[in-house]
């Protein structure tokens, strides 16, 4: 029986009759809203039943998955989100860390298993990508923590330094993008293998997920020693937001950027069209790299500005959605215009991986329009030689069961490890282990700063000390260069009839709008004048546990309607017999050990000499 043919309206090639051209993938007849003929918006190249602009995460992140398993992968992603929320609401920190570490990576490993990654000889490239990305992620996290230790603890109202601006808005975002893409570029240069866009997308996305997860776990694993439940940290809402950002938004965004760049690096243009893509075309790596650069520079500016956590959370969510759209469009364009890695055999037939119909072996399925490259090279060759059969024997129930068991086992393991790692409560035996006296040493030998308006003066550490002092018209700023670091600002301003508490609360709301009140300092004295003091905790929107916890201390004294203020900020660390003064303290940050003598060295104009 002779099969009927048609002449494609776009490429003018005679192909078997169908809804799509088997040579170029164009629709047999023009469709409304399809856009230019080269774009084919109505039918996504990896899942033609979907519009290219349809918000479908499974077919975007897992385009090579068999059609009957896409829903299962969507359920798996939803399950990871549910687990993150379920662990965060009751403040179960240890299992939450486990889900962040293995949730999305385990789902992606399941995708690699059903996408014939091993049969398609992708295992070696994926393994190299994972090893390089994990090494980069661990090193990146350690390096950025060390770099940020000196610029992340500005006290109230201080202008940002040039170093802080360059590091936060430029250095960290650019470095992050380079390391996310580096393993993919290395593999493409050294051993690319079969030049299929989806092959590059899988390598790029998997490497990006490994990089982000390795960095997150480097920071989070030490938190296991704090116990399985976070009893004194951030609120449940903040923990939910932090879990979703670190467990879903950040790795998905990185996977989208890495996958888009990988797909374009493995893209080879069709030879029969005579058209070579330009540097700005969607099949070129430069637009995808440019999007990644703009996205991460934007996140750097967001981190520098430190808006309210609600704004930061919305930005992360919107960026994730936009990144997934970029990945979807780039993958669609590369599949439509890529040179087939395996030459088609029009006289042969095979079973379409998408619609499961027996069709001529061409670059595109004439029935559904799926790109032939959406199936792996080995799978394509196998389906030529074997009679039609179900595309995959893996059931959705089995896939979800394996993924669920794996994630739950790891979460339970993290909980058990946390219980085992919790140190015994340090017993302070006094005497003999009483620590250092709480009374500060005299400061008479220290130099004094006098404000430009003559309203007050205050002592500050001199040269060749652990502090770097800078001066303002109304105060002095002390950067602690030892220990955990920190910043202390000693300054004055008109009280304008406000009480010390009102001044402290207003300053915290202005400069740390998301800070949570911890406790009020009893009998707080500033310059030996009874005033008000409080400690608060500030967490970034993506924080989990105490690793990014920033301690803020404000003390205010008012006399003659003029307020003298001591504002300090630094990383949180609990005082123990081995750290701090040797005895328990509610302050729990290093700078608090040394600030009392400077706070009480304040003098108002007209005060008698001390």
How would you explain this protein's 3D organization?
It is built from 13 helices and 16 strands. By secondary structure, the chain is an alpha+beta fold. A 7-stranded antiparallel sheet has the order 7-8-9-15-14-13-10, with helices on one face. A 3-stranded antiparallel sheet has the order 5-6-16. A two-stranded antiparallel ribbon has the order 1-2. α4 runs parallel beside α6 and α7 (236-265) packs antiparallel against α8 (285-305). It folds into 2 domains: 66-341 and 377-385 and 408-418, no CATH class; 448-604, Protein Transport Mog1p, Chain A (3-Layer(aba) Sandwich). The longest helix is centred in the middle third of the chain and has 30 residues, at 236-265. The chain crosses the membrane at residues 71-89, 95-115, 122-143, 163-186, 198-221, 241-267, 279-302, 314-331, 399-422. This is Zinc ribbon domain-containing protein. It comes from Mycobacterium yunnanensis.
